[in-house]
Amino acid sequence: MESVVLRASYKNAMLTLLLAVTGATSAVAADDLSRPVQAGPTPGHMIESTPLAPALGLPGQGAAYHILYTSTDGVTGRGTVTVSGAVYYPSGRPPAGGWPVVAWAHGTVGNADRCAPSVNVHTPRDTAYLSAWLKRGFAIVATDYEGLSTPGPHPYLNTRVEAFGVLDSVRAALGSLPDLTDRVMIVGQSQGGAAAFASAGYAPLYAPEINIRGTVATGVPYMSPAVMQTLPAVAMASTFRPDPLATYVLLMAAGEAGIDPHFRPEDVFTPQAMPFYRMVDTTCVFQLEDAVNRAGLTTAAILRSQAVRLLAPVFQAMMYPTLKLSRPVFIGTGSEDRDVATSGQLLLVHDACAAGSKVEAHLYKGLDHSRTVLASLPDSAIFTQKVMTDQTVSSICSPVPQ
């Protein structure tokens, strides 16, 4: 989709159709942090840690574990659910006090249990990216998020669900695994970029005991109440092929159906979309996207006229609890991002800076959603060194292509 202020072509309108702008600084939903979270018994408790299958590991790692832990149910904000994930240690002897931690928030994999990262081989890009963090001397604690490979639905793009999963994975690892120190970087990409930003926002009230040093995020989605006002017109204008936004909307709707028994997909999608909607619970994102693209489906073709109104709870759940983060954040954006609109990411940078966050933003010329991940590594290494050693981070709120 596109912004009416920051020009972006409709081919940029993928996942974050949701990321459009309306011309005013976007408001955010702050109500989640204005009331206490009613947590169930001991969120962040390690239920089980078992050696990870060697085929699922990372180059250059030491020990690695598959984990199950408790987390506050992010859908209701109370009670606990079981969440899965993985932990990867660097090779060699730990430093005095233990390895610092990267809390890794993964990008879109799909809603089906079999798509969970902890039970799959990493993509070449993520393998290279995570291995770079191991070489920097960080252990990696990687949540699957609520509902992926564990009971219950996966509420796709629900930022509270994602944040609780990230923060409780760190609690569980620090509380039960050896040779880790409470010096934490939150790191994420795409869906995980939103999870990382949200985790940094929720942390001061939800997990104040975690010593978060900073956040690194690439391809970060951004939703606000102002954006929601433009969604009907934009969704119906999204007709470019291939149109990945069509795949993302299917995932969003299926996630909502899993938590709302009254949700009727037939009221949201046209008949030609329904066979693809029924694939979501058993198919991972690359296979689903391939099927949607081969069928030539666009967002405008799959949505009924009332779809955006019926999906409003999904969009509301995408909002961040606050834009004022207590620790610095690095945001990397590709100038040619066609999965999460570049304009929306730059708006997030602008609004977070205006809210008082320390934001170091980088805009990578000619790079798309995926290529930005590895391209950002040198800059994020400098940023990480600064925040880990309490050096000053200078805000970059209007990045120029580099």
UniProtKB/TrEMBL annotation:
<protein>
    <submittedName>
        <fullName>Alpha/beta hydrolase</fullName>
    </submittedName>
</protein>
<dbReference type="Pfam" id="PF03583">
    <property type="entry name" value="LIP"/>
</dbReference>
<keyword id="KW-0732">Signal</keyword>
<keyword id="KW-0378">Hydrolase</keyword>
<dbReference type="InterPro" id="IPR005152">
    <property type="entry name" value="Lipase_secreted"/>
</dbReference>
<feature type="signal peptide">
    <location>
        <begin position="1"/>
        <end position="29"/>
    </location>
</feature>
<dbReference type="GO" id="GO:0016787">
    <property type="term" value="F:hydrolase activity"/>
</dbReference>
<dbReference type="InterPro" id="IPR029058">
    <property type="entry name" value="AB_hydrolase_fold"/>
</dbReference>
